[in-house]
Design goal:
Largest sheet: 7 strands, mixed
Structural class: alpha+beta
Helix content: 25-40%
Number of helices: 12
Length: about 400
């Protein structure tokens, strides 16, 4: 018997503990090296814990929903017990009757597919897997109709049963996920420690829309990614931050720390809550690099694949509620930053130009800022600088 301990990986310094989610294996079942055993939820990301070696999971030390810390032993694997692995007999019928192990074998479901199935209320035991060895893939789950009809509702862990909740007058109590707890903690911290004020402006998006329309095909062919709006908002924000460095600063005790770099946080909504991955040195990134990075963040955020270091730091944030149809909002600052830009839906509206009423695609921008270090004049001029850059996007290319 050769026993290997399965330990919690080293968490970041800012993460004291994590929570184990559901085990994908049971005691006595065979495991393959690098196969995901369990997901570990921190207050920032969800990490997969792969098996360190082939063998049999002989003991689960820590159960699902227990709190753990870095280096904690949560299970044991016997690397010499392959011949006696109980799941092996069940693996044979998998080739001829894949539905049989799928009904009772969570490991036959890929992690990304499992998360989507939980969000949509799909029973993966009833899904025919098309992946290797009959595993249920993300594509298999996406082809299934959602059981829960209200997709926009953010689902905590464990998910709320909407059908049950909306029948009669019941109540359902579910624990907050660590991510949701952390979001709540930071929002309250921001409201209670900063003097938050919000200023608004409107921007005519027609010049940006025209530029995208003119160069979209060539841009995608050249760079392999679509030219979206967020790269313009990031570039315009950096343009304004260079002119008003206090908006890129933070408070540390009685000091104001001015940052000589531009790490822009881009808020991304996930089924587990809001996360803000960071575009490091955004001022040095091209439009294509920004678009590719944001697209990568979005995909990995949905699958809980973002690394802890990608979610820490940041000197300024952008929150795009427009993707959900928001017309206006007052975003909350992400401490210890001093400002955040709220972007909203672009809609055709009647505006006055040269004494004439015309229709233009308008977007309402909101800048929430910490009034302790940013005065109203600076905040307004900062937002005007963003507006001017978006209404004449050539300035972002020429850096003028």
């Amino acid at each position: 018997m050769a026993i290997i301990e399965v330990k919690v990986p080293q968490l970041s310094e800012s993460v004291a503990e994590a929570t184990l989610l559901d085990w994908h294996k049971k005691e006595g079942e065979a495991v393959a090296r690098d196969e995901n055993l369990i997901d570990i939820e921190t207050d920032k990301v969800v990490l997969e814990l792969p098996a360190p070696a082939d063998g049999v999971l002989v003991k689960i030390v820590k159960q699902a929903r227990e709190s753990v810390g870095s280096g904690d032993v949560i299970a044991q694997i016997d690397t010499e017990a392959k011949a006696g692995a109980s799941p092996q007999p069940a693996a044979k019928p998998a080739a001829t009757a894949p539905a049989q192990p799928a009904a009772k074998s969570p490991p036959a479901v890929m992690p990304a597919a499992q998360k989507i199935a939980a969000e949509k209320g799909i029973d993966t035991s009833k899904v025919q897997g098309t992946g290797r060895d009959g595993r249920v893939t993300k594509g298999d789950v996406l082809q299934q109709p959602a059981v829960q009809p209200r997709q926009p509702l953010q689902q905590p862990t464990p998910p709320v049963n909407l059908d049950q909740l909306l029948s009669g007058r019941p109540e359902q109590r579910v624990p907050m996920s660590r991510l949701r707890q952390r979001v709540a903690e930071r929002l309250v911290q921001s409201q209670s420690t900063a003097a938050i004020l919000t200023t608004f402006n409107e921007v005519n998006m027609q010049p940006v829309i025209d530029m995208r329309k003119k160069y979209q095909e060539r841009f995608e062919k050249e760079h392999g990614t679509r030219l979206g709006f967020m790269s313009f908002f990031v570039k315009a924000s950096v343009h304004a931050l260079k002119r008003f460095p206090v908006a890129n600063a933070s408070i540390d005790g009685n000091d104001i720390v001015y940052h000589g770099y531009f790490d822009i946080g881009v808020a991304v909504s996930t089924p587990r809550g809001l996360v803000v991955p960071i575009l490091r040195d955004a001022d040095q990134m091209s439009f294509a690099e920004i678009e590719k990075k944001i697209g990568d963040f979005g995909k990995r955020a949905q699958d809980g694949k973002l690394a802890l270091e990608e979610l820490t730091g940041g000197t300024f944030s952008i929150s795009n509620g427009g993707v959900f149809g928001s017309m206006l909002s007052t975003p909350i600052i992400n401490p210890p930053q001093s400002a955040i830009l709220g972007v909203h839906a672009t809609k055709d509206r009647a505006v006055v130009e040269n004494g004439q009423i015309v229709v233009r695609p308008m977007n309402y921008l909101a800048l929430s800022y910490d009034h302790r270090i940013i005065d109203g004049r600076e905040a307004v001029l900062f937002l005007v600088a963003i507006k001017d850059a978006l209404e004449d996007p050539a300035r972002l290319i020429l850096e003028i």
